[in-house]
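Spend some time on the protein that follows and explain the fold to me:
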Amino acid sequence: RTHDCVPFDLSIVNKVFLHQFLELTDIALPSFDDEQVNWNDPTPLDTLTRFRASNIPEVVIKNGADPVTCFAAGETLVVETPKVADIRDTTGAGDQYAAGFPLFQGS
């Protein structure tokens, strides 16, 4: 890899071109619900395993209010998400997560 860092929102990629994008991806942030529909992944861990087969250094499986499943620094983690009361609209929540994630690496 000859670039600094490439995070990529995989929900917009056609299956035909996915492999080409994964070769360039440093941080994959797929949403489990999309992966379950498009690839029939039964669990977030199955999605993680499929992405890890492409040798992506960091994979974070977003899963709405459910725990985040991720691989980083050679370690697989399942991280509970904090419960938030009185949520009115979740439109774009995953996009905001993906946008902010690279900013907090190493913190």
Q: What stands out?
A: Helices lie at 18-22, 32-39, 44-52, 93-100. The mean pLDDT is 82. The chain has four helices and five strands. The first strand starts at residue 7 and ends at 8.
